[in-house]
Design brief:
The complex is a heterodimer of chains A (about 270) and B (about 350).
Chain A (H helix, E strand, L loop, with lengths): L2 H27 L3 H7 L3 H34 L5 H13 L2 H12 L6 H6 L8 H25 L3 H9 L4 H29 L3 H6 L10 H8 L4 H29 L14
Helix pairs in contact in A: 2-12, 3-7, 3-9, 3-11, 4-7, 5-7, 7-9, 8-9, 9-12, 11-12
Chain B lengths: L3 E8 L4 E8 L2 E5 L6 H9 L6 E6 L2 E5 L4 E2 L7 E4 L11 H6 L6 H7 L15 H13 L5 E5 L7 H18 L3 E5 L2 H7 L2 E6 L2 E6 L1 H6 L4 H6 L3 E9 L5 E5 L4 E4 L5 E7 L5 E3 L9 E13 L2 E6 L2 E6 H7 L6 E6 L5 E4 L2
Parallel strand pairs in B: 3-9, 3-10, 7-8, 8-9
Antiparallel strand pairs in B: 1-2, 1-4, 4-5, 5-6, 10-11, 12-13, 12-15, 13-14, 15-21, 16-20, 17-18, 17-20, 18-19
The chains are: A mainly alpha (about 270), B alpha+beta (about 350).
Chain lengths: ~270, ~350
């Protein structure tokens, strides 16, 4: 019998879609759109937006700058302990956020592993914007690196070899061949990692606290406003939904148009 | 022209690659897939490291395990044409050719007749065009050695025949030590004058295509060149001939003097086909149904039992041959070469 089975498939899909979409729609339907927009200009919302953008951008720059070479190394070199490195990179992906928060404390807190060293240098990290940046890097860099490794592993190794036999050193090969060809995959990785960092909550609230205008990011502001001004919480939530949709669309559209066009990213110098 | 000296040893998964070869002019390294041919090219280019050995172009040493010399790929004067050409998909034809720098790329584009393709991306080219771009790119650096990995394998049959002819003249004209790797004896014979046959990492025979066809030293080489190979036990007959007992109990005769386990090599064009037992000088006959009839250019390749015969298409038509027809395949004792199997 084919019919009952088709009905089961359709009903399952319908139920799941309704369950997933209803809360998101509710965010937008609870209060009129113009109220949502006006709530976004409240002081709490603006402060959270500034903190989120600033910390996310700094954290993301660090992730891209250190994560891209790391992904390339792991993807293209075979060395002893490679699978261990890979596992360490993947570990934060499965770690509960609260564990990330307490772990960051244990490392960089006043009584932590590096506490005395940092103290001597006159640096205190917990409950500062630096702590927010640390928390974001901790949770989002594994995303970027893992997907970046996949992007670099997808390259035809013969292209890298061809570049070498044509007289290009490893550096020129990276900038002229590997990076442009992996650009689509890396952009997608970057967008997903950025979204993951923007939504960071657990590790941030433990390690950085939720101080308005200093460490209170958008997700923390939603939590803080839940009991104070539900409309602001709704507005911030709706805003993050819009950002998430934008990221998702970027990821879906990117590979098709960046694959062979991002060549301008690479320096054309022939210094090596 | 400098000579490329190759002397290398490398343990591969199933066997040991051992090759000592001096490359002057155009030389082919032919053999079955997995014989270690590509590894040889990668090792010369510096993309893969041998366990020990020495690789030098004239006086320039690229690798020497004894003297601990190991130049990086970009430091070796080598042009490598990859099997699937490995053109950079994000660069135009002109940028691909200019990548290696050195020579004026527009001059190279003109020489290879690809100026009109200069602005296209590799994805927009045909197989034959890609091959020319890959060659132009490999030569742009003015390399001292040219290496080609299965240069015709990525082409369709039609293009292949045309490119074969072009490539032979081109490679000869370059005046570079050139090593062509291929799994096809026909390609090797068409492109080069000297062919080395590599099997399981060992060079089993080296010579011209004609040498390999006429006097194969091993059954593999015989089979590789397209000859028929029948195996059996040889013993001298009283009249100075050799009789080979085949596994199926039948016997064939050869003028070669050999005893013991042997392979009998018979070229397809030495085998004649008749509808009934012919009354002629042929000593060897195999009777059976035609298993297949394959036209090859102006000839017909006919499979009868263990033998492949090649006769003119005209004769095949005249005899009205069809698959399943009972025929007799005949060949002369003097056209039957014996090689020892043990």
């Amino acid at each position: 019998m084919r019919r009952p089975f088709e009905v089961v498939l359709a009903v399952s899909t319908g139920l799941i879609l309704a369950f997933l979409l209803l809360p998101i729609l509710a965010l937008f339907l609870r209060i009129p759109p113009e109220d949502l927009l006006s709530q976004l200009t409240s002081e709490v919302a603006v402060d959270a937006l500034i903190v989120s953008v600033k910390t996310s951008v700094i954290a993301h720059a660090v992730v891209l700058l250190l994560g891209t070479p790391t992904a390339y190394l792991v993807a293209t070199r075979r060395f002893r302990g490679r699978s261990l490195v890979l596992t360490l990179i993947e570990l934060p992906l499965v770690l509960p956020p609260a564990v990330a928060g307490i772990a960051l404390f244990a490392a960089f807190g006043r009584a932590g592993l590096l506490g005395d060293t940092l103290d001597a240098a006159g640096v205190s990290i917990p409950f500062t914007q630096t702590a927010v940046v640390f928390a974001i890097i901790f949770v989002s860099s594994p995303f970027y690196i893992r997907l970046g490794i996949a992007a670099f592993e997808g390259l035809d190794p013969a292209l890298i070899d061809a570049s070498r036999t044509l007289g290009a050193g490893p550096r020129r090969t990276f900038f002229r061949v590997a990076l442009p060809l992996a650009a689509g995959g890396l952009s997608a990785a970057s967008a997903l990692a950025f979204a993951r960092g923007l939504g960071e909550f657990g590790a941030t609230i433990m390690f950085a606290g939720s101080l308005q205008g200093v460490t209170q990011t958008l997700p923390l502001a939603i939590y803080a406003q839940l009991a104070i001004d539900f409309d602001i919480a709704l507005a911030l939530g709706a805003f993050l939904v819009v950002v998430s949709v934008a990221v998702l669309l970027t990821v879906k559209l990117l590979p098709s148009w960046t694959r062979f066009t991002l060549i301008s990213l690479a320096p054309s110098g022939r210094s090596d | 022209m400098d000579t490329l000296h190759i002397d290398l040893t490398r343990a591969l998964r199933a066997f040991r690659l051992e090759l000592a070869l001096d490359v002057e002019g155009v030389v082919a390294l032919a053999g079955p897939s997995g014989a270690g041919k590509s590894t040889v090219l990668r090792t010369i280019a510096g993309l893969s490291r041998p366990d020990k050995g020495r690789i030098a172009l004239g006086d320039a040493v690229w690798f020497d395990s004894g003297a601990k010399v190991d130049l990086r790929p970009e430091e070796r004067s080598v042009g490598l044409v990859f099997q699937d050409y490995a053109l950079f998909p994000h660069m135009s034809v002109a940028d691909n050719v200019a990548y290696g720098g050195g020579k004026d790329s527009s001059e190279l584009l003109a020489r290879f007749g690809i100026e009109s393709l200069a602005r296209l991306k590799p994805g927009e080219l045909s197989g034959g065009e890609r091959q020319r771009v890959a060659l132009a790119r490999a030569l742009a650096r003015d390399p001292g050695v040219l290496l080609l990995d299965e240069p015709l394998a990525a082409l369709d049959t039609h293009t292949r025949a045309r490119v074969r002819g072009e490539l032979r003249g081109l490679l000869k004209g370059l005046g570079l030590p050139t090593l062509v790797v291929t799994h096809s004896f026909e390609d090797a014979a068409a492109l080069t004058d000297r062919i080395g046959v590599l099997v399981d990492g060992q060079l089993v025979q080296m010579g011209s295509a004609a040498d390999l066809v006429a006097a194969p030293t091993t059954p593999f080489v015989a089979d590789f060149t397209g000859a028929n190979l029948l195996t059996g036990r040889a013993r001298a007959t009283g009249d100075g001939l050799t009789e080979v007992m085949l596994a199926d109990g039948s016997a064939i005769v050869s003028t070669d003097q050999l005893t013991g386990e042997v392979g009998a090599v018979i070229h397809p064009w030495e085998v004649g086909i008749a509808r009934s037992m012919p009354l002629d000088s042929m000593q060897n006959h195999v009777r059976g149904p035609i298993e297949s009839l394959v036209p090859v250019a102006n000839r017909m390749r006919i499979r009868v039992g263990p033998l492949t015969a090649e006769i003119t298409a005209e004769s095949a038509t005249r005899l009205g041959l069809a698959p399943g027809d009972e025929v007799v395949a005949s060949f002369k004792a003097s056209g039957t070469r014996l090689i020892p199997l043990a």
